[in-house]
Design brief:
This protein has 2 domains: 61 residues, no CATH class; 49 residues, Classic Zinc Finger (Double Stranded RNA Binding Domain). The chain contains 3 helices and 11 strands; from the N terminus they run E-E-E-E-E-E-E-H-E-E-H-E-E-H. The strands form 5 sheets. A 3-stranded antiparallel β-sheet has the order 3-5-4, with no helix packed on it. The chain is flat.
Amino acid sequence: MITNHEFKSDIFLLQAKPAGVKRARKAPRNTGTVQGGFLVQKYECAQCGKSYINMKSLKRHVQVHTGEFPFNCDQCNKGFHTQKQLKHHTDKQHYGIQYKCTVCDKVFASMQSREHHMSRTPQ
């Protein structure tokens, strides 16, 4: 089990350690520490130095280094790092769900992508 202080694998040891300070655009939901308009990144990957505001994000990032894909598609057995990535894959690849712009008819794989596009498209 991964503790709040280390991640052990056959490849390397990752330790959660204090990292740098970055300018915060807005305060994150219930995570990290905002001090004087700055977001303090708490956890750093010992492999590449990338920092995160919580242990959950660091654990998810570590999968990039370990090659772990804990979420697998039932239909094609393709692996994904997150459940959200798996849902996006099954919606697009196996169920044919698409999101179409009502202005220019461009098709998007996610509702968020379409909404972002539409917010920047003149109507």
